[in-house]
Amino acid sequence: MKKIIIAFDGMHFAEPALQMAASLHQVSPVQVTGVFLNSVDYTALWAFPIIPGAPGVTIPAESAADEALLKANIAKFEDLCRRLEIPYKVHDDSDGLVFEEVKKESRFADLLLICSELFYQNLGKQPNDYLKTILQMVECPVIIVPDSSKIPQSLVLLYDGSESSVFAIKQFAYQFPELCKKQTRLLYAGEESGNIPDQIYIEELVLRHYPNLMIETMPAKQGAHLQEWMDAHGNPLVVTGSFGRSGISQLFRKSFLTELIQQHRTPLFIAHK
Q1: Residue 137's closest CA among 93, 103, 101, 113?
Q2: Second label for 40, Cα 20 to 30 Å away, from 2, 58, 120, 163?
Q3: 169 and 116, same structural domain?
Q4: Which residue range is the domain that position 211 belongs to?
Q5: Rounded Cα–Cα distance for residues 155 and 118 (Å)
Q6: Could you read off the pLDDT of 240-258 as tens digits, one per residue?
Q7: What is the CATH number of the domain that holds 164?
């Protein structure tokens, strides 16, 4: 049984993430822990350009109404988990330290689910600073859940020859061996005239875990059309390495992921060491 944590930002109830957990529970049993965070981490105001009163940014004040909404969201979470017959726990003692709390929770979990559209949506267009920071600091894999919470019917493994991309491919296989039997595309994102790096090695690895495998390439200049490519392949679940790390290939992948997160249509499995 896996331990899955779902991060709620306190003011928004991320039901798509809970529905994704329910779908995963049908594949392999899970326990879900709802982590209910404060409306904003005030300790982060020095680290990010989030200025109270700035256009498009609202820093919510703690109030009795906030407290009531938090309790209502927790009650809704508990009720849905009971109806979906998912074992659950609730953690709501973050004390305003959002990043530290998520990092700690992720250390003791197999997987973190975040609803891309709702996670601190008052702090700007996704991926906003809070989501970017969470993706870089967590200590377990993450699935960014779009509006649709159904289990995808196919997989896309983003590969650029980096250690990070191979690590993510292995982590998904270890976490969800049942899903690896679905139709899978290994998508190499690189130069138009270049060969797939270490192609023999990556084929040997991936075929051991993903038997229904196809290999495709996408030139770097077509990265802006990644969502169109995904739409043509039935909006699969995408497996990728770290988000926002340095290096040319990582920056290229980051542009891919940013587009997919902004579209809120494709679930992303993101893993890094």
Answers
A1: 103
A2: 2
A3: no
A4: 154-270
A5: 24
A6: 887 654 443 454 455 667 7
A7: 3.40.50.620
Average pLDDT, the chain: 80
Beta-sheet strands, E only, within 138-271: 142-145, 154-159, 183-190, 213-219, 237-240, 268-270
- Tell whether 199 and 249 lie within a shared domain: yes
Model pLDDT for residues 155-195, shown as the tens digit of each residue? 999 898 889 899 999 999 999 999 999 999 999 876 655 68
Phi, psi of 187 (to 5 degrees): -105, 115
Do 45 and 168 share a domain, yes or no? no
Q: Does 115 share its domain with 8?
A: yes
| Number of domains the chain contains | 2
Neighbours of 128 (CB within 10 A): 18
Q: Are residues 230 and 141 in the same domain?
A: no
Strand partners, 145: 115
**Alpha-carbon distances of 155 from 27, 205, 255, rounded to whole Å:** 16, 16, 19
Q: Which residues, at least 6 apart from 118, have a Cβ–Cβ distance to it below 8 Å?
A: 9, 12, 13, 14, 16
Same domain, 195 and 217: yes
Mean pLDDT, residues 125-149 taken together: 82
Q: What is the pLDDT of residues 17-66, one digit of tens each?
A: 999 999 999 999 999 999 988 766 555 544 444 444 444 444 445 567 77
